[in-house]
């Protein structure tokens, strides 16, 4: 059985979502939430991912990186892989580990930590480049030697589209 909570709306229209509920739903401080009215008098709250909104272009871009460089590549939102290309790339839906999230929140290109993904071991070293404006939206992971330039190009391209 699902039980609801009752919260008051303050004069600025804000509603507090309890910390326990945010933790259970995996909502971190600063993350964007989409608010959609439903039929009747309801509201639907949903985690928002600007990277998920880049439907066709994200896969085409990663395919181009793989085709041009031979390096596998993956694009993540703030918590999981949303697009991937090439042999040795993590599968779509693979979750980022705490160290992978921490590397993205470092806000600068870096080597991919060995345990960046849950239940995934990659064969090649690589570079990750966070995608962020005010908050980190996700990251580009390119697996291979000299992957830094490719990762930076993809991250900058996507950042300009969201």
TrEMBL record:
<dbReference type="InterPro" id="IPR037914">
    <property type="entry name" value="SpoVT-AbrB_sf"/>
</dbReference>
<keyword id="KW-0238">DNA-binding</keyword>
<dbReference type="InterPro" id="IPR052975">
    <property type="entry name" value="Repressor-like_regulatory"/>
</dbReference>
<protein>
    <submittedName>
        <fullName>AbrB/MazE/SpoVT family DNA-binding domain-containing protein</fullName>
    </submittedName>
</protein>
<dbReference type="Pfam" id="PF04014">
    <property type="entry name" value="MazE_antitoxin"/>
</dbReference>
<dbReference type="InterPro" id="IPR007159">
    <property type="entry name" value="SpoVT-AbrB_dom"/>
</dbReference>
<dbReference type="GO" id="GO:0003677">
    <property type="term" value="F:DNA binding"/>
</dbReference>
<feature type="domain" description="SpoVT-AbrB">
    <location>
        <begin position="4"/>
        <end position="50"/>
    </location>
</feature>
